Amino acid sequence: MVPLFIDGEFRQSASAERIAVTNPATDEVLCHAPCATADEMEEAIASARAAFKTWKEVALPERARLMMRYQALLKEHHDELAEILAKETGKTFEDAKGDVWRGIEVVEQAANVPSLMMGETAENVARAIDTYSFIQPLGVCAGITPFNFPAMIPLWMFPMAIACGNTFILKPSEQDPMTPTRLAELFVEAGAPKGVLQVIHGGKQQVDTLLTHPDIKAVSFVGSVAVGQHVYRTGTDHMKRVQAFAGAKNHMVIMPDANKQQVINNLVGASVGAAGQRCMAISVAVFVGEAKDWIPELKEAMASVRPGPTSDPAAAYGPQISARAKSRILSLIEMGKREGAHCLLDGSQCEVEGYPNGHWVGPTLFSGVTPEMTIYKEEIFGPVLSCVEVDNLDEAISLINASPFGNGTSIFTASGAAARKYQHEIEVGQVGINIPIPVPLPFFSFTGWKGSFYGDQHAYGKQAVRFYTETKTITARWFDADIPAGGVNTSIHLR
């Protein structure tokens, strides 16, 4: 049984309701995640509320040093974390290591919190009156994270929130809770005070408790569109600050002047990498003009990659997270065929020797896809790539801007003018130029648009600091007549 982490201790839940955690490559049960009871939820929130009273007073440099110790421990245990992550997600070991490393980068940014929380000043805004601002924490914050990045996405959230002076309750995905639990253990080892971080497990009931409890001030979420909308509506209805990262349908535009081999190599990796289970995956390739002639070579390249277990160094990616996820993908592939798309490469019957119970889906490629088709409109979240053909760049931009999603997009071209036009006119939050998956480093923010994000301030970077804090503005006036005779005591006492 995966433990809860409440009030500074790891403990077994009193709940009789449990969720099986399985290895996606074998379907073997690894452990069980408990659904925290109402009393356990209340205890976790109360502990976080009590800890906030003292944690918010801890000096900024001390909070930063906690994050420096934590990132050092994460680096020391990098491969160990990747092994745990690979086992419960099915990711290849290299992919799992990348998941951990991208989280470490955010923790490193959290260690810069003193400069990120600097306010503003203006002298003499009126005669002998000065105005200045402070940035202060909110209180108890919560995070609800998905299965596909069980290290990176929790590390998007709680280090930044806690570095800003808040306390935090993490509800990780019930499908892979072992990695977040190990993250919490290392946070304790780094010196995190009691109650600053809580980790609870469960499903919708536990999520709704976080969304409705009056002591939770802000909620961060990453997951599907339907759940993201529920989180945003419910949280804001209960007067909380919410950032909800939801679904995506990411397009890559291929201009005929692009480097063909770079296009093919990047399309393969960006579409089937991580088994397509990432919100920044390229799921639609938009071929402009003669670039469509490269589709047969793309098919050949995709056919050469194959999924496999973590132990197989030649595997390009792992299994889908669950039998349910695989079944959904297969149904969408079949729907694509029925709606008239040309299935050039079909991974529906994929098998991996020695792993008959794994949730495998092979690389799948469609051409002749139109915007009316379900495989174009739905986020498939699997190793499936749809090819769309247009005559010019204007058509490509119009096509993408008509999409309800706006997480990421990219263009491959040798033309600076085409790239400049694209980055300026496209209505998507994150744009890559000759880069397929333009996830920004943590000193920027992850900036999805439209139906891919509900909220105002995004994850990590400066926007995360704004999300997890409030600004207090002071306007002060002092009178010369009040200066004491004989001077001022200028001694400084440091502790």
From TrEMBL:
* EC code: 1.2.1.27
Q: State the Gene3D superfamilies in the record.
A: Aldehyde Dehydrogenase, Chain A, domain 1 (3.40.605.10), Aldehyde Dehydrogenase, Chain A, domain 2 (3.40.309.10)
Span of domain Aldehyde dehydrogenase: 11-474
- Print the keywords alphabetically: NAD, Oxidoreductase
EC class: oxidoreductase
Is Oxidoreductase set as a keyword in this record? yes
Name of one Pfam family that matches: Aldedh
UniProt lists the family membership as follows: Belongs to the aldehyde dehydrogenase family.
Q: What name appears for this protein in its UniProt entry?
A: methylmalonate-semialdehyde dehydrogenase (CoA acylating)
